[in-house]
Design brief:
Elements: H1 11-30, H2 36-48, E1 53-59, H3 65-73, E2 89-94, E3 99-104, E4 107-112, E5 120-124, H4 133-142, E6 148-154, H5 161-172, E7 177-182, H6 189-207, E8 212-215, H7 218-226, H8 231-237, H9 239-249, H10 252-335, H11 341-345, H12 347-358, H13 362-398, H14 403-408, H15 411-433, H16 437-454, H17 465-477, H18 485-491, H19 496-578
Parallel strand pairs: 1-5, 1-6, 2-4, 6-7, 7-8
Antiparallel strand pairs: 2-5, 3-4
Helix pairs in contact: 1-2, 1-10, 1-19, 3-7, 7-8, 10-13, 10-19, 13-15, 13-16, 13-17, 13-19, 15-19, 16-19, 17-19
């Protein structure tokens, strides 16, 4: 099939053509599976990019499109009538002999031995205001493929409401439009000029520029060419100006320029449509971003509060250790003296007395404090789960989405988002329903607190932390017991006993200080581990939702960057086309 570019051997034109083809391929990659219509349009543009210059004739039925085309052909090849006579797109090409080729249910190629079809493809469309809705749809569907739209309106009802809507549709695609005011033979010259002014004013309001308008009588022109009317009727038809525009003003260079501009119009229109959808998705995801940020901030604050509030238990344990130190020092100071020499010789008796006076209530207080801290962690975990889920749902329920926004983002995107949200909500509710306070408390005791106990190197913690601390401290105090008869000789010289007392007190203080530091660090470390596990557990329930937001946000920004690049390339090519 001949191409517009077959007669224009210009490397610059061919380079621009390749750039436009690449742009269409890039644009197609941004279209999603559910955008089947737009993908098809891009594919059709790719197929017809090197086709002849294409003029698409549109207008309401009975506006005189067929008579107009017959006048251009100089022969009565199109059927004329007062009712819709064609329900298909007719692509008119040059061919000899005349033939038809059915492309689809609604598109047919017709070949005629008409000279101007050697350089131009003419497309005849069904009436846009037909009561058959499909006629309107197939006409709209062909607009993106047009290099020039020849808009035919009847002087009897110029720019009807349906025509205005159709012009707004054409405007969305950025197509060049030339207006034909047909049937002027039914009005006086003064009335024709009034209608021309009326059409100019209204088209200017729609497109923002003064349109090119050709007032003609297609019927008079066709009859005059066919010899069915005297030559003066040709003059009355004013058809020569339209022919001059199509056959002379639209020179080869001008057709090439318009041909190169036409895909840019469609690319720009589709890219803008994609950017609008992306902006709608951004708008739809804005509350999701706020919820994710709120969730992250809420969990960060909760972690800081939990760590801060857990210190009360660390301080209470530390105070118990300080009280233990005070009692121990007081005991050693009172009992490591000459008047208690018999007790000092009996390590068992000394140990029992030390335990009774120093450790009275200590083991129970330590273990009770540890259990209380664990119970507190469990309760706070439950409270945090409830408050986080409730706050998330509160924000979600308060989020009233504009149905128009949801409609613009694409059905698949909206479905995926809601499906992820519903799954996350169900998982969170199931996690809350299965939370057992007793089991959770036992788990912490068995794992986290065991790590504290074992870090002392004192063995398993079955007997409790208080018991193990007691054992560690008692061994220091026992160093002053078991005095032999030989050492008794030195007792009276007051050399050994004061030394033993001072050393025992110093060792006891150092051991207590070591245990205090170790215990404080261990409790803070292990409580931090448990708090982190709590926060991670809650965060994990919302992770699918956060992952969906992150993935979609990244995709949106990637596509936005690509579409912005496409729009920039469209502008660069448009400038290059004007320089041809």
């Amino acid at each position: 099939m001949p191409s517009t570019f077959d007669t224009v051997v210009d490397v610059n034109v061919q380079a621009l053509l390749r750039r436009e083809s690449n742009l269409l391929v890039e644009l197609r990659e941004t279209l999603e599976r559910e955008q089947a219509e737009d993908r098809r349009r891009v594919d059709e543009l790719l197929e017809t990019l090197e086709d002849l210059f294409t003029i698409v004739v549109v207008g309401e039925f009975n506006a005189g499109k067929s008579s107009l085309i017959n006048a251009l052909f100089g022969a009565k090849l199109r059927v004329e009538g007062p009712i819709p006579v064609d329900d298909r797109i007719s692509i008119l090409r040059y061919g000899d002999p005349p033939t038809n080729r059915q492309i689809s249910s609604f598109v047919v190629e017709q070949f005629y031995p008409v000279d101007f079809l050697r350089n131009i493809t003419l497309v005849d469309t069904p009436g846009t205001n037909s009561i058959v809705q499909r006629h309107q749809e197939i006409t709209e569907d062909f607009i993106p493929r047009a290099d020039l739209v020849l808009f035919v309106t009847s002087i009897d009802r110029p720019l009807s409401e349906s025509e205005r809507k159709f012009l707004e549709y054409i405007r969305e695609w950025g197509k060049k439009v030339v207006f034909v005011l047909n049937k002027i033979d039914t009005k006086t010259p003064e009335e024709v000029e009034q209608v021309v002014d009326y059409v100019k004013t209204n088209v200017r309001a729609i497109f923002g520029f003064d349109p090119t308008i050709f007032p003609v009588s297609g019927k008079l022109a066709a009859d005059a060419k066919a010899g069915a009317a005297p030559p003066r009727e040709w003059t009355r038809s004013r058809f020569e100006a339209l022919e001059d525009y199509i056959f002379n003003v639209l020179s080869e260079k001008e057709r090439v320029r318009l041909k190169l501009h036409a895909p840019l119009d469609t690319i720009g229109s589709l890219a803008k449509k994609q950017l609008m959808m992306i902006e709608s998705r951004r708008e739809l995801l804005t509350p999701d971003r706020a919820r994710n940020e709120s969730l992250t901030n809420q969990l960060d604050r909760a972690r800081a509060d939990l760590v801060s509030n857990f210190r009360q238990f660390v301080v209470r344990i530390d105070n118990l250790m300080m009280e233990l130190e005070r009692r121990g020092i007081d005991f050693l100071d009172r009992y490591v003296r000459i008047q208690h020499i018999m007790m000092l010789r009996d390590s068992l008796r000394f140990r029992e007395e030390f335990d009774r006076q120093v450790f009275q209530g200590f083991k129970g207080n330590v273990d009770a404090t540890i259990q209380e801290s664990v119970d507190w962690l469990v309760r706070e975990n439950m409270k945090l789960w409830n408050s986080t889920v409730e706050e998330f749902h509160r924000r979600a329920d308060a989020d009233t989405r504009d149905p128009q926004i949801v409609g613009r983002v694409g059905r698949e995107f909206a479905y995926n988002r809601e499906e992820v949200y519903a799954r996350m909500r169900l998982q969170a509710e199931q996690r809350l329903a299965s939370y057992d306070v007793n089991i959770e408390s036992r788990r912490i005791i068995d794992h986290a607190m065991r790590a504290v106990i074992q870090s002392f190197g004192l063995g398993a913690g079955a007997l409790g932390l208080g018991y193990l601390i007691t054992s560690a401290v008692s061994s220091v105090a026992l160093d002053v017991t078991g005095l032999t008869a030989a050492t008794m000789l030195l007792v009276t010289s007051f050399l050994i006993l004061p030394y033993k007392r001072s050393k025992a007190k110093g060792d006891f203080q150092r051991r207590i200080e070591e245990l205090r530091t170790h215990l404080r660090e261990s409790l803070e470390r292990e409580s931090g581990v448990e708090i982190d596990r709590m926060i991670r557990g809650i965060g994990a329930a919302f992770e699918p939702y956060q992952r969906f937001y992150a993935t979609e946000s990244e995709k949106i920004e990637r596509f936005a960057t690509k579409l912005t690049s496409i729009m920039s390339e469209v502008q660069e090519i448009a400038i290059a086309v004007e320089r041809l």
